[in-house]
From TrEMBL:
Pfam family, one: LPG_synthase_TM
Lineage of the species this protein comes from: Bacteria, Pseudomonadati, Pseudomonadota, Alphaproteobacteria, Sneathiellales
Keyword Cell inner membrane: no
Keyword Cell cycle attributed: no
Protein name (database record): Flippase-like domain-containing protein
Length: 329
């Protein structure tokens, strides 16, 4: 609870600082309201990313022999977003949507948890691929170090599962050094991780599709940013600037210092946008990212419909928190 409050304070503090230093301008936000059609198209792009995320998660679960329909995956994904935005607390969106699947597949807890983890990781890989693709568009003084970071992250991401599976006997030997009770728990977790990695290794095509969906998902987000900038009549940033600034903002948004990267994503987007201006201006670029975040939060409202439909199952899932944790161990 203390950390949650601290993160909220950091997020609010970042927004206050952005307002104070004119990185966010309410007049620009008001100007966007006069271009409702453009804003609606941007909102549609962001809403469609939820459908893509649901399809990606369904594919990743199917690779581990956890079969659910796309409609269920979509409903559970919307419910997860609804919990993350409107009902924050001990029960995160991933826990709720995973718990709902667990009710139909009680022998697949490890696989469900791993599918959620890999779902997050494929999303990150998709963003890294976009970052690598736009590397040539970044100013020369930043290209080398950003390139090193992106390539290193991609290399680690692809090599780590292979390394774990190839040298699993070494990891088991290390785990057995721990006291028996702890080692037993860790070995069960490690066995599940290895089994899932091997499952994905046999379904490489599914991983490629999942990563491709992630790339498409982020392209839609970047397109939404570009459209919102147009709605605010901001013409001082090129489309290349939107892409590079958008990637920087989305990366910063993933830093878990505030709820959902609140304030941090806006600051990164605005700062990089100013660096990429052909002619220096005092445009409050962070306003674009803030409006995009607001529209993204509004997509979570759609989760209210499946939330009400699955309310009994959700309540049962929340009540099963302790049994689930015991089974995980």
């Amino acid at each position: 609870m203390i950390f949650t409050i601290l993160k909220i304070c950091i997020g609010i503090g970042c927004l206050v600082a952005l307002f104070h230093y004119n990185f966010i301008d309410f007049q620009l936000l008001g100007k966007a309201s006069s271009s409702l059609v453009t804003v609606a198209i941007a909102f549609s792009c962001l809403l469609f990313t939820v459908f893509i995320g649901a399809l990606r998660w369904q594919i990743l679960m199917g690779s581990l022999q956890v079969q659910i329909t796309f409609i269920r995956s979509l409903n559970y994904t919307f419910i997860g977003q609804f919990f993350n935005v409107f009902l924050p607390g001990a029960y995160g969106g991933d826990f709720i949507r995973g718990g709902l699947v667990y009710r139909q597949h009680r022998d697949k807890l490890g696989e469900i948890m791993m599918s959620s983890l890999v779902d997050r990781l494929t999303g990150l890989v998709g963003l890294l691929i976009i970052a690598f693709a736009v590397l040539a568009l970044i100013p020369n003084q930043f290209q080398f170090w950003i390139g090193i970071i992106v390539v290193s992250c991609l290399a680690i991401g692809f090599a780590a599962p292979v390394f774990v599976v190839r040298f699993q006997s070494l990891f088991r030997a290390i785990i057995r050094v721990f006291p028996n009770a702890v080692a037993k728990i860790l070995l069960r977790i490690f066995d599940t991780v290895v089994e899932c990695f091997e499952g994905y290794n046999h379904r490489k095509r599914d991983l490629i599709v999942a990563i491709s969906l992630s790339v498409f998902q982020y392209i839609l987000v970047l397109e939404a940013l570009y459209l919102l900038g147009g709605a605010m009549e901001i013409t001082s940033l090129s489309w290349i600037g939107y892409i590079v600034s958008g990637v920087a903002g989305l990366f910063a948004n993933a830093i878990p210092l505030s709820p959902g990267g609140l304030g941090i994503g806006e600051a990164a987007f605005g700062q990089v946008a100013h660096l990429l201006e052909p002619v220096p201006t005092e445009t409050a670029y962070s306003s674009i990212f803030l409006l995009m975040r607001t529209l993204t939060l509004l997509t979570a409202v759609f989760g209210l419909i499946p939330f009400l439909f699955y309310r009994d199952a959700i309540n049962a899932t929340r009540m099963q928190n302790e049994p689930l944790q015991k089974n995980e161990g």
